[in-house]
Amino acid sequence: MKKYISILAALTVSMGLTAQTYTNHYPKELNKLATRWAKKGEWRNGFTKASPAPTVNLVEFYLQYQKNPQQWNALFQWLQETDLLAIPAGRIPIPGTTLTVSVEDGDNWCSQDDLRAGKGSESHYQKIDFMYVVRGTEGFCRLDHETSTPRSDYKPDRLDYHFQYDRLEQFTSIPGTFNIMFPCDWHIAKVKTNAESQNLRVLVIKVDYKL
């Protein structure tokens, strides 16, 4: 498997492909492989509560899972075995791992005016943001790579950006799906939506990003 991944990575470089507007771009063969893998559900480890949102970069998910199955398996097992609405808000360690779950209760806060003012953006080099809404509707944006630029120096583990409002990709996340923001996904979370209530409970788990 590792040899196959290396070959595919080399193919990506040899084809001279560059980043898509909002996330990394990969050859069709690798996209098909990752899509089949995601549908087959080898990553689930018994997890049945949710599936990847359409916005998840499945190739990144596939590659990172192959490099770090222990953390991903522990994450999904804990999610399946835990009553996610009954646990208290705060930081909860996942037993037997270095992973910590941030259980956040609150409201979407980032308005369209905030977005126009350039607020709320971030990306990470060392960690992956696994984000799972278990109550309510969370709004998200991803930034356009072609027109966004770093706003300040990198401060482990975060970088924020100048971005163009009219180039944002805006979408929502609801229970039954989860989002994963990889280092190539420059994003804004907790964007206000058209839902009647902006209150939500979201779980955020920082997974190690493996080069």
Model description:
It is a single chain. The chain starts with a helix and ends with a strand. Helix 2 (28-40) packs across helix 3. The strands form three sheets. It has a six-stranded mixed β-sheet, with helices on one face. A three-stranded antiparallel β-sheet has the order 8-5-10, with no helix packed on it. Helix content is 26%, strand content 27%. It has a single domain (2-208), classed as Sandwich (Jelly Rolls), CATH 2.60.120. The model is unreliable at 1-19 (pLDDT under 50). It is of the alpha+beta class and 211 residues long.
Question: How are the elements arranged and paired?
Answer:
Elements: H1 2-14, H2 28-40, E1 51-52, H3 58-67, H4 69-81, E2 90-93, E3 100-107, H5 112-116, E4 127-135, E5 138-142, E6 149-150, E7 161-162, E8 169-173, E9 177-181, E10 187-191, E11 199-208
Parallel strand pairs: 1-9
Antiparallel strand pairs: 2-3, 3-11, 4-9, 4-11, 5-8, 5-10, 6-7
Helix pairs in contact: 2-3
Number of helices: 5
Give the low-confidence spans.
1-19
Q: Spatial order of the strands in the main sheet? A: 1-9-4-11-3-2
CATH architecture: Sandwich
Please report the first level of CATH classification, the CATH class.
Mainly Beta
What's the quick description here?
By secondary structure, this protein is an alpha+beta fold. Helices cover 26% and strands 27% of the residues.
Task: Please describe the structure with a list of short key phrases separated by commas or semicolons.
6-stranded mixed sheet, disordered N terminus, alpha+beta, Jelly Rolls, 211 residues, single chain
